[in-house]
Structures are given as structure tokens and as C-alpha cells.
Amino acid sequence: MSDRTRSVLRTSIPPLRRLLPSVLFGAASGGSVVALIACSAWLIARAAEQPPVLYLSLAIVGVRAFALGRAVFRYLERLTGHDAAFRQLAEIRTGVFERMLPVAPDGIADLRRGELLARFTGDVDELQNVPLRAVQPVASASVVLVAAVVGVSSVSPGSALAIAGCLVAGLGATVLVQRAVAARAERRLAPLRGELQAAVVEHVQSLDMLVAFDAAAASRRRIERLGERLAQHTRANASAAGAAAALMAAIGGFAVAASLTAGQSLLAEGRIDGPTFAVLCLVPLAIAEIAAALPPAVTAWRLARVSAERVASAVPDEVPAELPAAPLEPDVVPATDGPPRLTLRAVGAAWPGSRGAALSGIDLELAPGERVLVRGPSGSGKTTLAHVLVRFLDVADGSYLIDGVDTARLDPSEVRRLVGLVEQSPWLFDEDVRQNLLFARDTASDDELVDVLARVGLGDWLAERGGLGAKVGERGALVSGGQAQRHALARAMLAGFPVLVLDEPTANVDRERADSLLRELLGAAGADRTVVLISHTPVDPSLVDRIVTIDGGRLVGEAGREPATRVAP
Amino acid sequence: MKPLDPRLVRRSRAARGFLVAGGALAVVQAAATIAIAWAIAGLVSGLIDGMPIDEVRLLLALLVCGATVRALGAWGWEVVGSSGAMRVKGELRSDLLAALERRPAGIAGFPTARIATLLGPGVDALDDYFGRYLPQLVLTVVATPACIAAAWIADPLSGLVLVIVLPLTPVFMALIGMATERVQRRQWDSLSTLSRGFLEVVGGLSTLLLYGRAQRQVGRIRAVTDDYRKHTMKVLRVTFLSGFTLELAASLSVALVAVSIGLRLVSGDMALAAGIFVLVLAPEVFLPLRNVGAAFHASAAGVTAAADAFELLEAAEGAGDEASPIQHAPGSGARGRSTAGEGLALAGVTVRRDERVVIDGRSFAVPTGRLAAVVGESGSGKSTLFAALLGFVPHEGVIELEGRELDGHGFDRIAWAGQTPTLVAGTVEMNVRLGDESADPAFLDTALRVAGVDVPADRRLGPGGSGLSGGQAQRVAIARAVHRLLARDLPLLLLDEPTSAQDASREAELAAELRGLAATGRIVLVATHRPELMAVADVVVSTEAAHV
């Protein structure tokens, strides 16, 4: 077990003050079970000796009190235990997310969303079982078992030894059986479940394509095969768990027989009376009932450990070299009125996990207020450049300066405050239009939102859909590709980045509209905003100050329109 | 809440098999339990009275045998329960997947995240349902009456106490169950929201980072989780109440039986052996019922998941009828106008999506051998028109391809590439030959060439086709459509915005290839807003009514 796994497991255990109530209530409930049986057995056996009823009254009160206590304490145990576990769940979930932040988005781009879903809801939910099904039941049952065996030994040490022997042998064998047979299957269950879920998500999300290519049946069969494999492992698992459960079920009967045989001679010699003997014979049944809680706890612990390992490895532990890391003591860019000056000097960059650089030797100076078109064929490194500019990707060689400050010494989020990006495939959240805009600037009024939508050409669309409350649908399903781009543009305009990088903003917009949209956009951006426009389609040269061309990750040409005129103050 | 969803028994053979095997096991376990109680009672009372050693040995043997048989019964339950759950889950999953395939355009009210949750963690709730809840339910039905009967024979008065107390508990259970169902439903919804919310946060993580909002999501996740806890605790407070009632009834009736036996023993009205027999048996009467209570939570989750699955099945099957072949607008009279078995002809085609008319009574024709461009503003219904041709959404009016009406299975006669590439994990070759894996390999080369794919065919792609640029992925998707067109010799190729991620030279190359493809006697229909593509098209069709 790695340190990382251990620390995940440790975070899943609530602090003592929250765990203790459930342990104590559990012990009280278990104690009541044993006491109820002992009291009842003594009552009946003593009654058979026909003493005056008065001698029985204490036992009668005890029987009733323990009967009540057992149910009440059990209810309290379950409530306090679940509440403590759920409170811990929030810690675990946010912990996983916080681990993702430094490597997102380019360090976890390959993680399947379906698998993440399974990991998050499955493995993390599994972790709440650590206190609930492992730690607390073991603690409570141990207290009760030790007390019960010690109690029996005060009357008949032989019986206590016999009961303890049955318990140790039964529990030991049970745990060993579980380990030997199920450990392998268990290790496979969680990954298989993740694989199945990933396959289901892929199937459901590309269903229209799969149907159109007659491939849906094959994909469905793959899911069914995965389901069958999962079923096989689950069955092997259940069979082993069943063998263990069987051993535990047998313990009660065997312990009665053992305790009775050991106590029999004491009875014959007259060293204990009949009622005490009856107690010795029946208490093992209750003890076995308590002990039965232990094997499932061991299983729960093992399952939780596998999940903890997966949670620990779900997201890379260390930030890959290709991604920027926030410096411990970040500098700040001195505040200026206009947009900052961006300088790239011989910059090279690469994607995590890929061989070779995607960009190399890029020299580029972006003066405040300048509009630069970056063009080049698809796959030439334009998007890489965009990701470097917003510090999604680190500068591997050379340097990237903002107003003369090296961005390596800046917090990436500080860079992103200055440099904004409209992505090639923007993400719309499954909310209404208002929510999708507001997170860019949450102080914006409805009028401002409507205004910005009109500026990107969505005014009519908004009116048709009935205003800002219109839903955009899951993954923007209710808006077309071009409309999604415009939403993203509107969002960027609201945020008001001094430097704005537009990655193929007009890819899904028709040509006539593309030019007018760009004109509108650049007009709306104002003269004092730097704009980097990335496009593989021709753009009206009068819209920009300068055109640079990238091919194969290198700058291959630069053409300026009236080079000197727009270089701002 | 119903303890057992009748739809489950009706629909599932595996569920019925499980119930039969379980019934047999329950009888064996009841017999073993009674034997154990009888042996213990005989031993305790006998030894106190000084019983001969032979009889002691006999009873000890009976005790050990009874315990062993009972243990084997417990093992049998685990095996039967688990394989029952697995088989029912498999059946449900297959049924659901098959039903979904009939509605490729999606089902209203079931976003993909909800379907994915339902097919994964959703049906997993059936594990506990079959593994823990149903076995105890069967034991309650079979073993409990047997134990009561045995207790009654030994001591009618105790039997009477058990008979009176026992039925009270299901009544409480039903009352509490009714209260639980509502909250349970809400909790299931909040679990779906939680997983959907996380998917959204992860999917939009780059967007959130760009706007400096990612850090803030930590608080949001915490809030959602805490909300989930509050919901769940509300459910549990009630759910555990039913467990509490059962536990209380069980232990109080043991107390009642013990006290009443004790008092009658004092007055010499009954024998010690009978008293101990009933005392040992009394908890066993309640044990299955108590376990049902303990598994009640599991049962509710399982029943809710099953109900959700059936709801989706019914929605898919119901919607399937509605979507099935073309619905003619009465009196459209289009049939007579169709041209004699050539090309593609639409007459008075109307398509609605979510009650909104997207395409309103369009008619146009494209002769065989032509390249046609479908143009119109973004959102004007180009993709919807394609979905109607493919049969993914229902339409009114008549669509004919080569003289035959396109029914709900348009995709049988059409090759299509959608607006997003939608590639799957595997090699480029596997993606291109998808669905026609046994076709002539020569088609693969042609398709790759036509679409201008410049990555090696054996390049392995990650999930969702990751590892390719947007333009490359788009070309692979086009190659896939072309491959199908050639391999199956289909008459119609539909490409939705095929050049949105291509540069001008690629666009020109593709346009030329498409014209060549059309010239081999096929129809190529391209939805586009690129003037270059429109310029080379033989026919330009607008989806906007004004241009008719």
C-alpha cells in the first residue's frame, strides 16, 4: 500500500469526536443483545426451580430493559455512523477535485469521462464505507466480544476458552478464505466496473453514429461481454463470501456445543447451579451473532483499499513537465492602463505524453492593442500556441514575458486574468443562457447580457428562444455549433480580457457572416485590446494589423499591413 | 412501496428462477433452525436433570449437524442471490441497450448522463436487492411460519404472542415504506444530479480555468455533497425507523415470551425444555423480518432503479412507435408526384423537434449523379433535415430515394458523417471500416484518399478519437462515410459541415473528390455554409423558407 493510498484512507476516517458516538452506541447495542439472552436464560432456568416470584423480578426488569436498549442503541448507532461518514465524503470529493486542478486541462485530457464518472461516484462512495462498515463495526464488536468472554470466564473459564477458541478459529478461517479466494476477484471488480461504465458512456454518447453505421449491435455486444465478465468475477466473489458467511453461521451452534461440554462437568460437580449453566449454554448464540459483524467489515476494508488506490492514481500525482506549475512566491505584473505587452522568445512547447515538440523557436511580439492573425494548416501548432499563451501548456524552451515579467514567475491564473481564450470547441454548461454567461462576470445585469448577445449576432435567436432563461441543453445540444461559438465569444467579451486569443472563432459560422462577425467582434473589443486571431480560413486582411504563419510548429512567414501605424503608445 | 416489483417477475426469467431456488433453500434452513433449537433445549434441560450420556451425545450430534446444514444453506443463498442479480442485470442492460438503439436521436427527459448512470451504478443497486433483500423476503415468507408453527406446538401461548406481534411489524413497515418512497425518489435524483454536475465540471474544466472559476467549484462540489448528505440523512432517519420498529418488536416479543414462560414455570404449568425451545426459537422467527428491515434501504434503491429502468424502456418503446415509419400529412398527395425512381425527392416534409417546427413543408429533388449543397444559417435545420433522412427523427410528408420511400431505417440506404466526428477508441482503420469490417480492403484505401486522411491507417486513437486534431478527425469521419457508401454501394452520401475544420486547399481537394464520387452515379448531399463548396455544387438547396 503506497503512502498516497494510506493518506486517502486516512482522510476517509472521520475525526474521533465524530466517530466515537457511533462506536459507543454500537457497543451498547451489542452488549444489550448478549445481556438479553443471558438474562432470559437465567430467568427461565431459575423459574423452573419454582422460587418465590419476588426473586425473579429483577431479571424480569432486566429482560425488558435490554430488549428496549438493543433497538434504541442500534438506531442511534446507525444514524450517528452514517452522518459521520457522509460528512467525510465531502472532504474526499473535494480532495480529489483539488488534485485535478494543477494538471487540468491538458494533463488529464485522456481521462475518459465515463471512467471518471465511475471513479468519482463509485470509488469515492466506496470510501465512505471505511468508517461505516469497517472501523466502527470492528471497534464496537471487539468491545462487546472481549467483555462477554471475560464475563463467561468469571463463571466457567473452560467455557470461555471453548467459546474464544471457536471464535478465533471461525473468524480466522473466514478471513483467510475471503482473502485467498476473493482478493483477486475484488481487485478486478472495480476496474471492470469502470471499463463497463466507460463503454456504456461511449455507446450512449455516440449512439446515432453507431446506429447509422450498423455498429451499435457490436458495441452493445461488447458491453454485454464486459457485463458477463463482471458477473463472473462477482459470482466468484459471492461464492467465497458465502463460504465465509457459512462458517460464521456455523460458529453459533458449535460454540454452544463447546461451551456446554466444558460447563457440563462444573454442573455435575455442583460448582455452578442450573440457571448459570443455562446462561453458559445460550450466551454463545448471542456472541456468535455479534462476531458475525466482523468478516463483512474485513471485506469492506479490503474493497475500500482498492478504491483508495484507484482514487490515489486517478489523477497524476506529479505535474508533468509539459505543464506549468504555480511558483511558490509568484510575482505580479505591474498594473498599467492598457493591455500588457506579450513577448515570446524562441519558445518551444510540447503536449504531455506526446513525443516531440509541437512548437519550437517561436519569436513573437504582441504590442498593446495589436491585432494579429495566426494562420496555418490544421495540425501546424496554432492551438498549441493558444494554450501556451494562456499557460495551459508550459514553455519548454525560451521564454514568455508579459510586460517584461517572465510568466514562469507568475501564477498561471494571473496570466489567465490578462489573457483570455475562446476555445475551438467551447463548453456550454447544462444550464440556461444567463448562467452560461454570468460566470464570466457575475455582476453583469440582464441588459448587459442581452446587449452582448446582440453584439455577437444572437439577438434574434435569444428573442426566439424566449430570453435569458432558455436552456442550452446537455453539452449545448439545443444550440448549433455556430451558436455555441458565439456564446463563447459573448462570454469572453463579458469577462473583458485585455488580451484575447480567438481559436478558430468562425469555424462553424457561414462565410459572409464570418467576416461581419469578426468585424463586429474586433469593433466591440475596442482599439485598446490586443487580439490574437487563429484561423485556417482566409480572413479579410484589413481586419488585422499583422499576419503570421505557422507550419510544422515554426513561424514560416510574417506579413504586416502598415507595419508601424498601429503599434500603440 | 411494493416489496417486489411485479414487472420484474413478469419480465425476467432469471428473477423467477431465483425465487424458486430460494424457496427450496428456505425450507432447508427452517428445518435446520428448528433442529438446533430442539437439540439445545433438550441438552440444557436434560443436563440440569442429569440425563444419560448416550442421549447427550445424540443431541450434541444433532446440534452440530443442524448448525452445519444451516451454514450450507447460508452459502447457497449467497450463490443464488448473486447469480440471480447478475442475470437480471444482464437482461435489463440488454433490453435497455436494444431499446435505446431504436431511438438514436435520444429520448426526451433522459439525457445521456442519466442513461449512463442508470445503466451503470443504477442497475448495480439490484446487487443488494437480490443479494440481501429478496433472500430475507423469501425466508420471511417460508421460514417464519414454520418456526411459529414449531413454537406453537411446544407452547401455544408463546405461539399466540408471536402470531400477534409478528403481523404488526409489516404494517409498520408498510407505513414507513410509504413515507420512504418519496424521499427515496428525491435521493436518487440528487445522486444523478451529483454525477451529472461532476461530469459538467470536469468537461468544462478548461473553460472554468480560463475564467478563473475552477477553484470555486471546490466549494460547489462540497455544497452539492453536503446537500446529498442532508437528503440522504433525511431518508435514513425514516428508513432506519422501520429497522428500529422491527428490532424493537423482535426483542420485546423475546422479552414477552421469556417473562411469560418464566411466570408459568414458577407455577409449574410447563416444562423447562419447552421453555428453552421457544426462547431459542423466538429470535429466529423475527430474524428474517429484521434482516428485511436492515436491507430495506437496499430494496428501496433497487426497486427505484428497476422502476427507472422500466420507465426508460417504456419511454423508448412508446416513442419508438411514434417515430416509426413516416407519418403522412393527410392529403399531402405527394406520392403521385415522385419522379420515376431516380434521385432523392422530398415533398412537403415537415420536421418538429421538441414541439418546435424546424423544417416546414420543404420540397426539393436532387437527381442521381449530382453534388447538392444544403445551405442556411446556423440553426436553420440542416442537421435536422439529415436526421429526418436517416430516420432518427419522425417527419411528415414524403421522402423518396430512388423511387422507394425512406422509412424509419433511412440509414440502411444512406452513408452519413455528422457535424462532430464521433470517433471511437481504436485504430484509424477500425474507425473507417466501422460496421463493414469484412468489406474489400481496397475500399479502405479509396475512402482514405477521397477524404484526404493523412495519418497512417494503423494509428491508434484514444477514447473518443483523441490524438487527432479537429481537422484530421473530421477527415477520418468523412472517410468512414465514404467507405460505407462504397462498401455497400449505397445511393446517397450525407456530409454535415464536412469542411468546417479544413483549410482552403483541403476544401478544394475534397470538393473535387465529392464531385467525382457523385459522377459514379450517386447523390452527394453536403450541408455547408462555405461559398467554395456551394460554388462547386450542381444544386443548392436552402433550408430557410424564404428561399424556397
Strand order of the largest sheet of chain B: 6-9-10-3-11
Order of helices and strands of chain A: HHHHHHHHHHEEEHEEHEHHHHEHEEE
Unreliable stretches of chain B (pLDDT < 50, length at least 5) are 320-340
Fraction of residues in helix of chain A: 55-70%
Strand order within the widest beta sheet of chain A = 6-7-8-3-9-10
Ends distance of chain A:
61 Å
Identify the overall geometry of chain A: elongated
- Strand segment count of chain A: 10
Quote the average pLDDT of chain A: 85
- Strand content of chain B is 5-15%
Radius of gyration of chain B: 34 Å
End-to-end CA span of chain B? 57 Å
> How many beta-strand segments of chain B?
11
Give the largest chain-chain interface (CB within 8 Å). Answer: A-B, 156 and 151 residues
What does this structure look like?
The complex is a heterodimer of chains A (569) and B (548). Helix content of chain A is 60%, strand content 10%. Chain A has 17 helices and ten strands. In chain A, strands 6-7-8-3-9-10 form a six-stranded mixed β-sheet, with helices on both faces. Chain A has a four-stranded antiparallel β-sheet with strand order 2-1-4-5. In chain A, helix 3 runs antiparallel to helix 5 (129-155) and helix 5 (129-155) packs antiparallel against helix 6 (157-205). Chain A is elongated, with a radius of gyration of 35 Å. The two termini of chain A are 61 Å apart. Residues 561-569 of chain A have low confidence and may be disordered. In chain B, the strands form three sheets. A five-stranded parallel β-sheet of chain B has the order 6-9-10-3-11. Mean pLDDT of chain B is 83; it is low at 320-340. At the A-B interface, helix 2, helix 3, helix 4, helix 6 and helix 7 of A face helix 2, helix 3, helix 4, helix 5 and helix 6 of B.
